[in-house]
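Sample entry was shown:

___
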Amino acid sequence: MSGLVSKLTGIIGNGLIESVGDIADRFIQTPDEKAQFKVELERVLQQRDSEVEQTIRAELQAKERIIVAEMSQGDNYTCLLYTSPSPRDRG
């Protein structure tokens, strides 16, 4: 799971770092400031990636708990059925 997330966000993140880095190059004058900016941007993107992964992991765990609870009820199957009142039921 984390491999997929890291691949997707890595692709997006790398392109984003380069794009933002190019914009920053226009406004930041010294090479040290440029390097520091890119390092900080990378840190922020890695933090965002970590938060996204944690959110996905929490959602999967919640869904897993629901499935385990459903399965432990001992029912052979679970069926959610929605029926709207038919004309003959209205009287």
Q: What stands out?
A: The longest helix spans residues 31-71.
